[in-house]
Amino acid sequence: MSKDLENEILAPVPLHINVVEGASDAVFGEITGSGPNYRAIGWKGTAIGLGVLSIPVAFDALGIIPGVISLIVIAGITTWSDYIIGVFKLQHREVYGIDDVGQLLMGRPGRILFGTAFCLWWIFVAGSGMLGISIGLNAVSSHATCTAVYVSVAAIVAFSFASIQTLGRISWLAWIGLFCILASILIVTTAVGIQGRPSVAPKGAVWVSDYRVVGKSSFTDSVSAISTIIFAYAGTPAFFSIASEMHDPTHYNRALILCQSVVTSFYLAIGIVIYYYCGSHVSSPALGSAGPIVKKVSYGFALPGLLVSLMIFVHITGKYIFVRILKGSRHLTSNTAKHWIIWLGCTFGVTIIAYIIASAIPVFGDLVSLVGAFLGTPMCFQPMGGMWLYDNWSKRKGHRTMKWNLMVCWSIFVILAGFFLMAAGTYGSAISIMNSYRGTGGSTAWTCADNS
């Protein structure tokens, strides 16, 4: 690559860029006044990070010290992965999703493999979101109706809001969602700290938390817990869509640093405090750990955040499929009948499949662990190691620096670690799900029972 071309690719976008009618984008094509402007999301609306509800349960399996170490390591790897996405996007402007990366790394088979994994990942995440909302509605209403009805309500609301066309129009809701989730978990954290005991602890005796500095769980339980932490950080694939729809891509790293630093701080603080006071009696999700009254209050705050998260999960998946179907067509950015039929069909299809998953695997912890292991690692580890090698491997022909050698080793380590965690975590999660079904005789699927 010539120096002039390199400078052109890496040149920053003007700070106050406005995408106007007639402008052209490497992904969306010509932006017209008659259609949606997909390049309209700012850096503040980009900083989205949720997943804290599963951290205390993971610490229960691992112990505080291994849990904190695992969380920090996974935070470091995923932050690097998110950073590589921003660098790769600036050097390959035509990249919209992870399937484009697969095309560059492995040709058409890579596009199919990565694209399928991406869709499955977000659909499963949306399913876990619907399940979380059904738990919240059960908690707030004292199980006023069948759980299957609450899952359906979550699906309907998600489809309605996710069908808003651009991230720029809904990204402000992420602030509301983030505030609600953090408020709810802080309520529970404060309550268990004041009470000094979890709500399900044995009554009539002095309570001493049975938290462990180092856990004594089996290999399958431990690797399932690590998969749960990966799930909490596995918003990485969304950064492709976000980087593509930011009106100023030079603010990408600002959003990345804000997102990762805030969520990591809260994950550590809340995970440690709740597990310290609750020990093995911590609930999954964690909002049920402080008793029925606090549970109602905390879920009352959390429900808007859970709904916003679900809406974004469905939107991102539907948008990905929509762009793939209409890329290169005038219907992509024009308000034609074909545009709307395909767009609504994409979001509706994603919602229906996620609903089926949420109803078929109605155990929050098991579903989160399975998704994190089987689909989270291939979305957050292996591709990013490959992306760095793709852009930098050719430098081996010149003078190899120590930095280059270290980055090669690091990229290979990330790839291998991803494959190991995917295989081991999927095995552990599958065993847990089978044990759950064996214990209930399979009656938990599409159940009316209270799951809160």
From TrEMBL:
Record GO cellular component, one term: membrane
Domain Amino acid transporter transmembrane: 46-429
Subcellular location: Membrane
Primary localisation category: membrane
Transmembrane segments: 61-85, 112-135, 141-161, 173-194, 223-243, 255-277, 297-318, 339-361, 367-390, 402-424
Key words, A-Z: Membrane, Transmembrane, Transmembrane helix
Molecular function (Gene Ontology), one example: L-amino acid transmembrane transporter activity
The keyword Membrane is assigned to this record: yes
Topological relation to the membrane, as annotated: Multi-pass membrane protein
Taxonomic superkingdom: Eukaryota
PANTHER family in the cross-refs: AMINO ACID TRANSPORTER, AMINO ACID TRANSPORTER (EUROFUNG)
UniProt similarity note: Belongs to the amino acid/polyamine transporter 2 family.
Name used for this protein in its record: Amino acid transporter transmembrane domain-containing protein
Native source organism of the sequence: Aspergillus eucalypticola (strain CBS 122712 / IBT 29274)
